[in-house]
Write a structure and sequence with these properties.
The chain has about 325 residues and is α/β, with parallel strands linked by helices. It has helices at about 10-20, 40-50, 65-75, 90-95, 95-115, 150-170, 190-200, 220-230, 260-270, 295-300, 310-325, and strands at about 1-5, 25-30, 55-60, 80, 120-125, 175-180, 180-185, 205-210, 215, 220, 245-250, 255-260, 275-280. The strands form 4 sheets. Strands 3-2-1-4-5-6-11 form a 7-stranded parallel beta sheet, with helices on both faces. Strands 7-10 form a two-stranded parallel ribbon. Strand 5 (about 120-125), helix 6 and strand 6 form a beta-alpha-beta unit. Helix 5 packs parallel to helix 6.
């Protein structure tokens, strides 16, 4: 078995590739190593992966269809874990072209490669952002999600619809994973936990949006990876013989935490009080997220378990070690 992990130098991609390798599987990782955030951090993740004998890396952009097709032809992947994307809600306000290329054109190329080379299962990253300002809580995969409040969210919903179409037309089996606020060691510098930690250790104030009146379903990276690993060998079952199917899953802790409580957890882990700068809500943001993870639990017998306090402490330990602070 050889599994493709796209976005292997990214936060979730790195952890997923590492776990699959440690489970004894052959993993090919690709990434375009763009400079949306620190390339040095991405290279440091890849250095960790390069020490694993069953991991192979190739620098590649999923927008390059011919290169992607050649890769699929060469390896005959049994599963594809597609995590490469242009991330970030706020960045999409100023850089829409990056999202159109990576999240739309790139995803279509992945679907085309799967159509021609037939992996048993395509797992791809969606996002909790597709729920927009949904007032029904917790968010269920059965909820209507046709009013995205950011371009990023719109591209992720488009991915789900494209996958649905390809599964219906070409018999693919796919699982779309709506991730909820992922955090942990080796995390992204544009995410709140990383930015807050950096600012607090530098004695700088942290910006708290919507004057602190926000909550997130913070989900620890190990729980994300465990969900992916359990889903890999369990593609969705078609309703009719021989037909493909696209199934959606929420991957979240299932326990939203108020933003101010999250800051309290970080202060406790750092042993430092933050200077809190309360600011208005940003465009494209939402007040609260909360995952209904019953579909995941029913399908693979697992739901995320790591408490935020423990997860934040693990991140702080990694950050202090990696940056020597």
């Amino acid at each position: 078995m050889t599994i493709l992990v796209t976005g292997a130098a990214g936060f979730i991609g790195y952890h997923t590739a590492k776990r699959l390798c440690r489970d004894g599987l052959e993993v090919v990782g690709i990434d375009n190593l763009n400079d949306y955030y620190s390339v040095e951090l991405k290279l440091a993740r890849l250095k960790q992966l390069s020490e694993l004998s069953n991991f192979r890396f190739q620098k590649m952009d999923i927008v390059d269809k011919s290169a992607l097709m050649a890769l699929f032809k060469q390896h005959g992947f049994t599963e594809v874990v597609h995590l490469a994307a242009q991330a970030g809600v706020r960045y999409s306000l100023d850089n829409p072209d990056a999202y159109a290329q990576s999240n739309l054109v790139g995803f279509l190329n992945v679907l085309e490669a799967c159509r021609h080379y037939r992996p048993a299962h395509l797992i791809y990253a969606s996002s909790s952002s597709v729920y927009g300002d949904n007032s029904k809580l917790p968010f269920s995969v059965d909820d209507a999600v046709e009013q995205p409040v950011s371009l990023y969210a719109a591209t992720k919903r488009a991915n789900e619809l494209l996958a649905c179409s390809y599964c219906h037309l070409y018999g693919l089996k796919a699982s779309g994973l709506r991730f909820f606020t992922v955090y942990g060691p080796w995390g992204r510098p544009d995410m709140a936990l990383f930015k807050f930690t950096q600012a607090i250790l530098q004695g700088q104030p942290i910006d708290i949006y919507n004057h602190g009146q926000m909550a997130r379903d913070f989900t620890y990276i190990d729980d994300i990876v465990e969900s992916i690993v359990r889903l890999c060998p369990k593609p969705p079952v078609p309703d009719k013989q021989g037909e493909g199917v696209n199934r959606l899953f929420n991957i979240g802790r299932g326990m939203p935490m108020a933003l101010l409580d999250f800051v309290d957890c970080l202060e406790a882990a750092l042993g430092i009080h933050a200077q809190r700068n309360f600011v208005p809500m940003q465009a494209g943001d939402v007040v609260k997220t909360w995952a209904d993870v019953s579909a995941l639990a029913d399908w693979v017998g697992f739901s995320p378990q790591v408490e935020v306090e423990a997860g934040v402490a693990q991140f702080v330990s990694w950050y202090r070690s990696y940056y020597q602070v």
